[in-house]
Amino acid sequence: MFMDISELKKIIEGSDVVMGTDRTLKLLKQNKVDRILLSNDSDSQMMDRIRKISQKVEVMQVDKSKEDFKEICKTQFNISVIGIISGKKSAKKAK
Q: What is the pLDDT along the chain (95 residues), one digit of tens a residue?
């Protein structure tokens, strides 16, 4: 799915997010995730695993790389999975 950087930043900065596969899957199993964003260079086995577990949650593969996610989330690690936490909206920026 095409999403420009500013649109992706707006989603991430306007929501409480969790970064990384393990953390996202943990909250997904607790029904605390509304949406999952996957980088375009995510591992296919990991993507299949997430899609299998997240049948009731919107999963979007975005046309941005792990490096783009890293830059947008202002972290030192590449990120291939971002979970948007259910019902939580805040004005704070994603860390």
A: 667 778 888 888 888 999 999 999 999 989 999 999 999 999 889 888 888 888 889 998 899 999 999 998 899 999 999 999 977 544 333 33
Class of domain 5-85 as given by CATH: alpha beta
Query: pTM above the 0.70 mark?
Result: yes
H or E stretch at 35: strand 33-38
Domain ranges of the chain: 5-85
28 token code pair = 């997904």
Q: What DSSP assignment string belongs to 16-61?
A: -EEESHHHHHHHHHTT-EEEEEE-TT--HHHHHHHHHH-TTSEEEE
Is the CB of residue 85 less than 8 Å from the CB of residue 28?
no
